[in-house]
Design brief:
The structure is a homodimer of 223-residue chains. In chain A, 19% of the residues lie in helices and 42% in strands. Chain A is of the alpha+beta class. The first copy, chain A, is elongated, with a radius of gyration of 23 Å. Chain A folds into two domains: 85 residues, Protein Yojf, Chain: A (Distorted Sandwich); 126 residues, Trna Endonuclease, Chain: A, domain 1 (3-Layer(aba) Sandwich). The first copy, chain A, has a seven-stranded antiparallel β-sheet with strand order 4-3-2-1-7-6-5, with no helix packed on it. A five-stranded mixed β-sheet of chain A has the order 8-9-10-11-12, sandwiched between helices. Chains A and B meet through strand 2, strand 3, strand 7 and helix 1 of A and strand 2, strand 3, strand 7 and helix 1 of B. Chain A binds a DNA duplex (15 and 15 nucleotides) through strand 4.
DNA sequence: ACTTAGATTTCGCCG
DNA sequence: CGGCGAAGTCTAAGT
């Protein structure tokens, strides 16, 4: 993340045309390419901005931001730079997970037995060459279990976990790795697809995970 | 404007309850008291925020933001501060101002005679104990004139200027301070109220101020 | 990918 | 001050 405090003039053209006269402002360039222009008042909404995906070009005193595959353009003319710093905010930034999903992942990482009896955590964000799977656990028989966590378990989630399992099972010693989809709600169609592929579905209750409420037997737990 | 890059946990309660688990984020505290919490991805919208007016309290590792006259509360627990810098972005930033209003103030500060013949600028953002008045000028007779600038001159603007004048006239040597409401458009009811309180109204034309167009006599200028 | 509905919507105007 | 409608709406969810 790059933070620039500068006297600057900003021009936007695209869905409309707008000019911000030269003034002292904060420019934020995020790791994903999104750009915000903020003044020192009037919270929340930037004076101007462009969301990802963008191409950013910088040359002597100007920053040009163009939308990938679009006509939009943000031109920033820097008149006087008061500060220009870049912060590495870690590899986790690029992906950006839903707050709830992330929270779920944390809670389940702390108490993986909610994903299956006797489960123990091996690691969070187990890497594969097509992206990290949320949790890698071992079950009671010491068998590996890849756990994909979603707020809502959809067909896409099953497909995603399937792709991970394909890769993981190529690794030595992981040929029998199982798969579990953990979600607050699992859609019926996702459940059908998952079962046909030998993937287990587990519905988790946030209140129970937090220890605020006792677990109850649901229709599916009883099955 | 204060920029903090820190690993932090953020809790909001008010219109809803939300928790952001500990992560590296950018905190922006603007001069008007508005606060934004941004991650390194996903432009435009902050992960969490509170708009002005707020009261901000800071004590060992935590920042508490409360909405003035409301139940909303933003609690930030700082786990590890990577950077914490404050930029003075000019005294004009203090209150939230519309971009147009700000621009108007800049132009009128440069050419205060548009607020009244013979006016000379004493200073912008003249401080009072209830907030700064936009411009303090002297007229041809060297009498002080407090100028409130608005995009649209409303009853509220007249009330605001009235409150300022009450305070200003208590100061030594300013007992006869006059008041002028300068706006692009002055609402008829605001005009009536202003006149009843001896406050002058002036309609200003942005194009004229910029020197792009010659001034024209309007109905009210002629009065 | 397109469409629709919700948002701590925000923001501005009008009665 | 409350209601209504637009926004470069944005964002998530459903189809």
């Amino acid at each position: 993340m790059r933070l620039i405090v500068a006297r600057c003039e900003v021009r936007y053209s695209g869905r409309l045309s707008a000019v911000l006269p030269e003034a002292l402002r904060l420019l934020v360039i995020k790791a994903d390419g999104s750009v915000m222009v903020h003044s020192d008042a009037g919270g929340y909404k930037p004076e101007n901005w462009m969301s990802a995906p963008t191409v950013i070009e910088e040359s002597d005193g100007t920053i040009e931001v163009r939308k990938v595959g679009g006509e939009e353009r943000l031109s920033i003319r820097l008149a006087e730079v008061a500060s220009d710093v870049t912060h590495d905010m870690g590899e986790a930034a690029g992906l950006q997970k839903d707050g709830v999903e992330r929270h779920l992942q944390e809670l389940l990482a702390e108490a993986p037995h909610w994903c299956g009896e006797g489960f123990r955590l091996v690691r969070r964000e187990w890497p594969t060459d097509i992206g990290p799977v949320d949790l890698m656990c071992r079950d009671r028989e010491d068998c590996f279990v890849a756990v994909e966590i979603k707020r809502i378990g959809t067909i896409q989630a099953v497909e995603q976990l399937t792709r991970y399992l394909e890769r993981i099972r190529l690794e030595p010693g992981m040929r029998d790795c199982r798969g579990v989809l953990a979600a607050q709600v699992v859609k019926p169609q996702a459940r059908v697809l998952a079962e046909s592929r030998g993937i287990e579905c587990v519905e988790v209750d946030l209140a129970v995970l937090r220890g605020e409420r006792e677990p109850e037997l649901t229709l599916f737990d009883a099955a």
